[in-house]
Design brief:
It is a single chain. The chain folds into 3 domains: about 120 residues, Beta Polymerase, domain 2; about 130 residues, Poly(a)-polymerase, middle domain (Orthogonal Bundle); about 170 residues, Alpha-Beta Plaits (2-Layer Sandwich), CATH 3.30.70.590. Helix 2 packs across helix 4 and helix 13 packs parallel to helix 18. With about 450 residues, the protein is of the alpha+beta class. It has 18 helices and 15 strands. Strands 1-2-5-4-3 form a 5-stranded mixed sheet, sandwiched between helices. A 4-stranded antiparallel sheet has the order 10-11-9-15, with helices on both faces. The chain has a 3-stranded mixed sheet with strand order 6-7-8. The protein is elongated. Pfam families: CAA_C, NTP_transf_2, tRNA_NucTransf2. It comes from Thermococcus barophilus (strain DSM 11836 / MP). GO terms for molecular function: ATP binding; CCA tRNA nucleotidyltransferase activity; CCACCA tRNA nucleotidyltransferase activity; magnesium ion binding; tRNA binding.
């Protein structure tokens, strides 16, 4: 085990040459930022936060987070306006940049091969000063640096393990373990192996309170615990810098469940594949469909110009909306998958693409010539008032059902991608070549197979 972990660490730990490059780029970015801040004459202090600032980053993972801290007396509207203006000016000086969005807009710049996030925030001293979600980041960095005590490599091992089993990231479309959560687990349990060995205890214990907020601020901390317990989250880690926040609030049961089983598997049979997974084997999805005797319905549409944080949650919402709406129409939907390559897509595995539907057909008044013809042509006929009615069995296509659901606005879709979905091509048992691997991994369940 020790030899395996040492070998993994050699591959994921930045070399001295890489460290020197990172530090050199950080100094250049800081120098440019201070230069622009001086031109604007703002009372702003730049802070490096995140894994580069805490030295918990993996080799090759060099995203720089530079926070532009404004004084607390600056109104929020002014911080957003001036902060974005300042970040754009720094981004322009660095080279290429784009505007991204979180609680408020920030700038993502690109400098000498490095991605640099320039984020306006408040210069806070403690949790009572926090006004926006990003304000805690400076406090997080300071707290981790104070408590990590040289266990940086243990963080690297756990982070790479999380990445390898596909549970890393707190983004809304990932719902996994954040970098900060990874660091706190190492601080709590001591090492990578200790975290894995406590995977069952962690779930039973449920609450982790590293800063002792339940004693220092019992009312605030208990409110957090109750709120998160009511939300039925798998883990509650009271933020060491803010008793109002659960660091693990974004973690889903699915992602914790994957960690639960993978930790057990690793301890029973350690392997580098947990850190460096082999590519999933891909075969012919059409053969698989014939074997399973199910059908594949794919909606293919132009990818909206949205960042993943916005696009993927809306694709998820739309896919689940189709699942629910089609179930109500009598189609059994086994599973859904969504994402994008050249175009955005929603895949649905269903039991059939045609189904019988009963239709009620109104006819003419029974005492007319037309009424007699109606009576002779139909098998089931009855009278309601003076008019004849009959029952007719028709075949309904899932394509027609989807089109009708969209036309009548009877399916819950992501607001910003709704227009694109209404223009979607609907493919049956076929996907473009670039999606053939996705289709196989989806239909085979290898995309999510815990034993794979």
């Amino acid at each position: 085990m020790k030899e395996l972990l040492n070998q993994v660490l050699k591959e994921i730990k930045p070399s001295e040459e890489e460290r020197e490059l990172v530090e050199s780029i950080k100094r250049e970015v800081e120098g440019i930022s201070k230069e622009i801040i001086a031109v604007f004459d703002y009372d702003v202090e730049p802070y490096f936060v995140g894994s580069l600032a805490k030295d918990t980053y993996l080799s090759g993972d060099h995203d720089i987070d530079l926070f532009l801290a404004f004084p607390l007396e600056v109104p929020l509207s002014e911080l957003r306006e001036k902060g974005l203006e300042l970040a754009k000016a720094i981004g322009e000086k660095l080279g290429k940049y784009e505007i991204a969005y979180a609680e408020h807009p920030y700038v993502r710049a690109f400098y000498r091969g490095f991605k640099v996030d320039l984020v306006p925030c408040y210069s806070v001293r403690n949790w009572r000063d926090v006004r926006t979600a990003v304000d805690r980041s400076i406090l997080h960095t300071e707290w981790v640096l104070k408590h990590l005590n040289g266990r940086n490599d243990e963080v690297r091992l756990l982070k790479k393990f999380f990445k390898g089993i596909n549970v890393y990231g707190s983004e809304i479309y990932v719902k996994g373990f954040s970098g900060y959560l990874t660091e706190l687990l190492i601080i709590k349990y001591g090492s990578f192996l200790d975290v894995l060995e406590n995977h069952e205890f962690m779930l039973r214990q449920k609450i982790i309170d590293l800063e002792g907020w339940l004693k220092k601020e019992p009312e605030v901390a208990m409110k957090t615990v109750k709120r998160e317990a009511d939300a039925d989250v798998p883990l509650i880690i009271i933020d060491p810098v803010d008793p109002r926040r659960n660091v693990a609030s974004a973690l889903s049961w699915e992602k914790f469940g994957i960690f639960y089983f993978k930790a057990k598997q690793f301890l029973e049979k350690p392997s580098r594949e947990f850190f460096f997974p082999r590519q999933k084997q891909k075969r012919d999805y059409k053969k698989l469909l014939r074997k399973k005797e199910t059908k594949l319905v794919t909606l293919l549409f132009e990818k909206p110009d949205l960042i993943d944080d916005l696009l993927l949650p809306q694709l998820e919402k739309s896919a689940k909306g189709f699942m629910k709406a089609l179930e109500l129409r009598g189609f059994k939907v086994f599973e859904a998958h969504w994402g994008y390559k050249n175009k955005a897509f929603i895949m649905l595995e269903v039991d059939r693409t045609e189904k019988p539907r009963i239709g009620i057909k109104p006819g003419p008044e029974f005492f007319t010539e037309r009424g007699l013809r109606f009576y002779s042509k139909n098998q089931k006929v009855w009278i309601r008032g003076k008019r004849l009615y009959s029952e007719k069995v028709v075949e309904e296509s899932i394509v027609d059902a989807i089109r009708e659901l969209l036309e009548k606005n009877q399916v819950s879709l992501g607001k910003q991608i709704k227009e694109h979905i209404t223009q979607a091509d609907i493919l049956i048992n076929f996907v473009p070549p670039e999606l053939s691997d996705e289709a196989y991994l989806f239909l085979s369940r290898e995309k999510w197979n815990l034993k794979g």
